[in-house]
C-alpha cells in the first residue's frame, strides 16, 4: 500500500492537527494528476516544513476525489483534488509497515 507525503504551511498543518480541517487540497495540474489519478494511497504523512526533524502527523485516507473544496480551509474557487482524512495514526508506526 502506498503512503502519500505532503508538506503544509503552518496554518493548514495546525488546523488539521486540531481536527478543525478534515481534508487537504491539491490543484488539478500535471504534477498532481501523475501522482493521484488512478492511484490508491492508504495514508498520508503531513510535515510542517522540509527539515528532517520537522513536525509530522499521519492520517488514514478515506477518499481522494475531484470536487470543490472548502475555501475557509484553503481551497481555490474551482475543482481540486480533495483528500478526505480518516483517523489520526501514530507516527511511531511509520517505519514498521
Strand content: 35-45%
Mean pLDDT across the residues is 93
Strand order of the largest sheet: 1-3-4-5-2
The number of distinct β-strands equals: 5
Q: What is the ordering of alpha helices and beta strands?
A: EHEHEEE
Overall shape: globular
CATH topology: Archaeosine Trna-guanine Transglycosylase, Chain: A, domain 4
Can you name the CATH architecture? Roll
Tally of separate helices: 2
> If you compute it from the alpha carbons, what radius of gyration comes out, rounded to the nearest whole angstrom?
13 Å
Q: Major sheet: size, sense and barrel closure? A: 5 strands, mixed
Query: Helicity level, as a percent range?
Result: 10-25%
CATH class: Mainly Beta
Report how far the terminal alpha carbons are from each other: 9 Å
Key descriptive features of the protein:
single chain, 97 residues, alpha+beta, Archaeosine Trna-guanine Transglycosylase, Chain: A, domain 4, 5 strands
Q: Which helices and strands, and how do they pair?
A:
Layout: E1 2-8, H1 10-18, E2 23-26, H2 30-36, E3 41-48, E4 56-68, E5 79-89
Parallel strand pairs: 1-3
Antiparallel strand pairs: 2-5, 3-4, 4-5
Question: What does this protein structure show overall?
Answer:
A five-stranded mixed sheet has the order 1-3-4-5-2. The protein has a single domain (2-95), classed as Roll (Archaeosine Trna-guanine Transglycosylase, Chain: A, domain 4). The longest helix is centred in the N-terminal third of the chain and has 9 residues, at 10-18. The mean pLDDT is 93. It is built from two helices and five strands. It is globular and about 35 Å long. With 97 residues, the protein is α+β, with helices and mostly antiparallel strands.
Amino acid at each position: 500500500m502506498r503512503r502519500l507525503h505532503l508538506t503544509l504551511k503552518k496554518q493548514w498543518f495546525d488546523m488539521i492537527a486540531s481536527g478543525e480541517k478534515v481534508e487537504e487540497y491539491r490543484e488539478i495540474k500535471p504534477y498532481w494528476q501523475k501522482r493521484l489519478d488512478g492511484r490508491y494511497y492508504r495514508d498520508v504523512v503531513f510535515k510542517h516544513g522540509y527539515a528532517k526533524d520537522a513536525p509530522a502527523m499521519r492520517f488514514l485516507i478515506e477518499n481522494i476525489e475531484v470536487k470543490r473544496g472548502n475555501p475557509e480551509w484553503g481551497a481555490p474557487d474551482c475543482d481540486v483534488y480533495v483528500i478526505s482524512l480518516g483517523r489520526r495514526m501514530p507516527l511511531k508506526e511509520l517505519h514498521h509497515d
